[in-house]
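FW: tagging you since you asked about this chain on Friday. Here's the raw sequence from the shared folder, copied in full. Didn't touch anything.
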Amino acid sequence: MVKKKPDPHIDNASSPEDHTDTEMDDDHGRASSLQQQCQPPVSPRTAERNALLARLAELGTHIDLAACSAPPVDHSTQPDSNTVAREAKATDHDRQSRASDSDPESSEPSSSSSSRSYVRKRKHKRKYKRPKRRHHRSDGDSDGDSDARPHRYTKKGQDPPKKLSSDKTEFATWHFYIKNKFEDDEPLFPSDKYKIRYALTQTESPLWDNLRSWLEDKQSQNAVVSWTSFIHEIESFLDVPYLVVQSRTQVETIRQSFTEDVSELFARMSVLWLQANMSLPDKLRTFRQALRPALQRAVALVDDSSLEDERQLLDAVRTAQHNLEVYENHQSSSGRFDRSQRWRQRGSSRRGFSASRPFGAHNRSGARYQTPQTPLSVNSLPTIQPRNPVAGKRPPGWSGDWFEPELNPEPITSDEQRRYLQRANRCFRCRGTGHLSTDAVCPLSSRNSAPRSVNAVAAPSADKGPDIDPSSTSVPQAEN
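HL: got it, structure written out here
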């Protein structure tokens, strides 16, 4: 409510009408203030003009409102209340910014001022690079679709080295690579449909033509094709069942040659095992019977039930083969030394004959020369060593158990003891290791019991004349 100031030229005494006019003015002031409160906020320029007019009215100056009124306002272009509020807020913000630039301490907003609102400065966002989306493996059942495959996936498996056409001997190798591919890249093959599609890409004519026609027949019949039926169709087209029988027959009859290494034999049999689809007991059995007899006896003590695969038996056979080679090399070197010594002794024993006249030569008259009848001395007779060296010492490089020969072993009384010696590769005669009772290297062999001699002549007795041993080589008499 705006109160009018009393005019100093008018008397202070007032009439009742004046009091009535004052009350009416107060009522009009209250009504106008209420109307102003209900109206939307006005712009700052309009507020300043209204304040100026009110001030002039208080001073009693009568000014024509029509002369100083604003031009007519087009309500169609007049801003609404929200626009006016935003302009007022922007004006307050500009004033506050200018005040903060002039006085930094007064930059804080005042709690008493309700018309001004504190605008918080916006922090600068840190720019960061969005991480790449990575694929997470899933089983495909999370979304309810069992055939779901990842969109981005790096292949890890290896394709077959050669496409399958019509050679049934290549089926086992091809099938091996295909199964490994399915295991390594499992997310790419969630169902049999994708497996069959991939397998078709690894085939070529005429197998590919046959499989395509077979699949078209199944689709025309609305039949579901499984991976097992697909493999059966390939086996029937290539006649793989007959290959299994043929490979099994061949692996049962294969034998190790004398110059063939154990590793070469194992490589040959591995291909046949894969084609015949043989189990582990059959692999061990066929590998044992394909070895040479000496190697079979060497690995007779190896228990098949303790082996996890056929390669463990291969390692045992390799060790036995190494021991046999070391033993044979040792025996051959000893035999060469004995043979050279024996020939030297034989050469010295023949010095008793005429070196200038060969034995049995004729003179000019046609008569043969007579060989002297004087017997040779017993001490000058050579003694022949056994034909084969005795296996009494462990050869250098031997791996495994070694049993020395026994001079007086106990006789074998049971078949169980005989089987034990056979499995341990020991001799039945001397119980030694590395040879048999029929071998000449046995110390108790009959071949080594009595050493032979060349031209052995009995020593002359004191009472009788010299007697010639009838078992010795007779000396021919000269013809008359």
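FW: Residues 168-238 form one domain.
HL: agreed, and The two ends are 190 Å apart (CA to CA).
FW: great, closing this out.
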